[in-house]
Amino acid sequence: MSTTQPPGSAHAHDELPSSTVTLIVNDQPRSARCPDRTLLVELIRDELGLFGTHAGCLNGDCGACTVNVDGRITKSCLVLAPAAEGTTITTVEGLGEPGALHPVQEAFWEKDGFQCGFCLPGQLFATIDLLDHEDAPSDDDIRGALAGNICRCTGYQKIIDSVRCAAERTARTPD
Ligand code: FES
Ligand code: FES
Q1: Where is 69: in which H helix or E strand?
Q2: Does the CB atom of residue 58 touch ligand 1 within 6 A?
Q3: Same domain? 90 vs 134
Q4: Do residues 70 and 111 share a domain?
Q5: Full DSSP string of 97-165
Q6: pLDDT at 4 over 70
Q7: Which of 64, 94, 124 is the last residue of a domain?
Q8: 51 and 113: one domain?
Q9: Cα(129) to centroid(ligand 2), Å
Q10: Which site from 60, 89, 91, 160 is most exposed, i.e. has the minimal number of CB atoms within 10 Å?
Q11: Does the beta carbon of 156 lie inside 6 Å of ligand 2?
Q12: Among 45, 68, 94, which residue terminates a domain?
């Protein structure tokens, strides 16, 4: 009888080259062991249990998987998990303060900038990044900053209204 394991079996999975990835996520030290081919979005969701980061297209188009890695907004489906070793990551769960939304989250809430919320991580991180560089963005600035984020249900005008509102809120919020 053959002892060869079919692809995808638990035994075959165990034999995949694997690494332990250690990183800081939302100010907490975290680590997980995973196959080297694991995507960062899969590590965040499946190993760390942070389901606010969404897995959509998995090819860099939709933005639903966006997180901040070492200060840069990053589509986590485009990064292998082992490449994130030693990084500091903020996910959507890490925005704001405990018990309080980030001003950009408040603005999206106030202006109905989302419906299902699937695209929201990307919209929020792109907005925060834009407002870090531009206090009073024009509509063209906003459209350019959000271009890598696809929303299938809200309509982009409400998202632009939310970013404008966020600009006003962050201008009023001291560092
Ligand atoms: S899931 Fe990463 S960009 Fe769509
Ligand atoms: S709110 Fe549903 S995809 Fe944007």
Answers
A1: strand 66-69
A2: yes
A3: no
A4: no
A5: BTTB--HHHHHHHHTT--SS-TTHHHHHHHHHHHHHH-SS--HHHHHHHTTT---SSS-HHHHHHHHHH
A6: no
A7: 94
A8: no
A9: 19
A10: 60
A11: no
A12: 94
Domain count, the chain: 2
From 115, 127, 159, give the residue whose CB has the most ligand 2 atoms within 8 Å, as the site to mutate: 115
Q: Which two tokens stand for residue 164?
A: 């404008």
Distance in Å, CA 149 to ligand 2 centroid: 10
Residue 13's pLDDT is what? 54
Q: How far apart are CA 108 and CA 67, in angstroms?
A: 17
53 and 36 share one domain? yes
**pLDDT for 11 beyond 60:** no
Tell me: do 74 and 127 sit in the same domain. Answer: no
Kindly state whether residue 10 falls inside one of the protein's structural domains: no
Ligand 2 and 115: CB distance under 6 A: yes
Domain enclosing residue 142, as ranges: 103-172
> Rounded CA gap, 115 and 88, in Å?
29
pTM over 0.85: yes
